[in-house]
TrEMBL record:
Pathway: Amino-acid degradation; L-alanine degradation via dehydrogenase pathway; NH(3) and pyruvate from L-alanine: step 1/1. Residues 148-297 form the Alanine dehydrogenase/pyridine nucleotide transhydrogenase NAD(H)-binding domain. It comes from the Bacteria. Pfam families: AlaDh_PNT_C, AlaDh_PNT_N. The active site is at H95, D269. Its EC number is 1.4.1.1. This is Alanine dehydrogenase. Substrate binds at R15, K74. One of its GO terms (cellular component) is plasma membrane. It comes from Oceanobacillus halophilus.
Length: 370
């Protein structure tokens, strides 16, 4: 199969879909890979390294997009919709529940849209989201700690405290991949950490993992409200796979937070967990202040640590890309139910229920279209 790898064009998106090691894997299996010139530079991979791995370096986005399958990192931006054509296999993060324009463009052009974030194993885990959730979760605490500093607009609290002065309080809503990694770093910093989740079994696992280093709370409006209002840093990481994120923290709760507190809404890529997360920000200008609270709502957090993230993403996506390329998307998705769950658009239909519901459009089962 001919596989294209365009350069990412989102603000400060320095990741690339495949590291040279992944190119070598695909080429060794008999496929052709076309990498747009400079696509890897943000992650410190040169054209020469890609060429040595066997890729063809192409000089334009047009050529990279003109292949049978395109692998990307972020959801295409409107200026990329012109590259869509009927039958294109697009393998990338899509976050369609929060992207009505992109959903429409994929349907109109009959693109086979396979979303990394909805590929799901029988145990419910999301293997192509996990490494970026690990990155974003760890970053969430780091950036939260930074924005609590006075010169960054925060209230001037050091999360670790010092002897004689109490520790900062961190609330993490959603104890999955992002939440667990955010907690790891917050505990490491010595903060007073609370994790809130809807799933009691998940709370038990977190309790076993972190012991007395965390407080765990079941998710309900009262627990969320009480914990959020008392916190210096609140991290939003609730996901209902493929669906628009639930807004669990209301504007009223945010109004009650102390001035200079910080919100890091990692779930912003699916629409966000805070009623006050009313915009997506960029790495160039990552925060805004609402009701005195600093909001960080960057939808591509791992783009700031591209070297780690590109390698982490390649590790998990390439085995699936190989299945798509070796067998063709139909047989690959019939043989592997996890991959089948990744198909969000096919033949002009929305094939992921939560996406169809988010946009009020007809849902068609992917399997019946294969
Ligand atoms: N902004 C960014 O750059 C990035 C954003 N993300 C996003 O972060 C979000 C979280 O991802 P993961 O942690 O991997 O998901 P996950 O599926 O591992 O975890 C989600 C957790 O939310 C919990 N949950 C569901 N409903 C809840 C409720 N009502 N109250 C409390 N908890 C509830 C689930 O039980 C689960 O433990 C996703 O939207 C993902 O796309 C991930 C990576 C980068
Ligand atoms: C998950 C996602 O959208 C990201 O890593 O940017």
């Amino acid at each position: 199969m001919k596989i294209g790898v365009p350069k990412e064009i989102m603000n400060s998106e320095n990741r690339v879909a495949i590291a040279p090691s992944g190119v070598l894997t695909l080429i060794s299996a008999g496929h052709e890979v076309f990498v747009e010139t400079g696509a890897g530079l943000g992650s410190s991979f040169t054209d020469d390294q890609y060429a040595e791995a066997g890729a063809m370096i192409v000089s334009s986005a047009d050529e990279a997009w003109g292949q049978e399958m395109v692998m990307k990192v972020k959801e295409p931006l409107p200026e990329e919709y012109k590259y869509f054509y009927e039958g294109l296999i697009l393998f990338t993060y899509l976050h369609l529940a929060n992207e009505p324009g992109l959903t429409k463009a994929l349907i109109e052009h009959k693109v086979i849209g396979i979303a990394y974030e909805t590929v799901q194993l029988p145990n419910g885990s999301l293997p192509l989201l996990t490494p970026m959730s690990e990155v974003a979760g760890r970053m969430a605490t780091q950036v939260g700690a930074q924005y609590l500093e006075k010169p960054k607009g925060g209230k001037g609290v050091l999360l670790s405290g010092i002897p004689g002065v109490k520790r900062g309080k961190v609330t993490i809503i959603g104890g999955g991949g992002v939440g667990t990694n955010a907690a790891k770093i917050a505990i490491g910093l010595g903060a007073d950490v609370t994790i809130i989740d809807l799933n009691p079994e998940r709370l038990r696992q977190l309790d076993d993992l972190f012991g007395a280093s965390v407080n765990t709370l079941i998710s309900n409006s009262l627990n969320i409200s009480e914990s959020v209002v008392e916190s210096d840093l609140v991290i939003g990481s609730v996901l209902i796979p493929g669906a628009k994120a639930p807004q669990l923290v209301t504007e009223e709760m945010v109004k009650k937070m102390k001035d200079g507190s910080v919100i890091v809404d990692v779930a912003i890529d699916q629409g966000g967990n805070f009623e006050t997360s009313d915009r997506i920000t960029t790495h160039d200008n990552p925060t805004y202040v609402k009701h005195g609270v600093v909001h960080y709502t960057v939808a591509n957090m791992p783009g700031a640590v591209p070297r780690t993230s590109t390698i982490g993403l390649t590790n998990v996506t390439v085995p699936y890309a190989l299945q798509l390329a070796n067998k063709g998307y139909k047989k690959a998705c019939i043989d592997n139910q996890a991959l089948l769950k990744g198909i969000n658009t096919l033949d002009g239909y929305v094939t992921f229920k939560a996406v169809a519901e988010a946009h009020g459009v007809k849902y068609s089962e992917a399997q019946s279209l294969l």
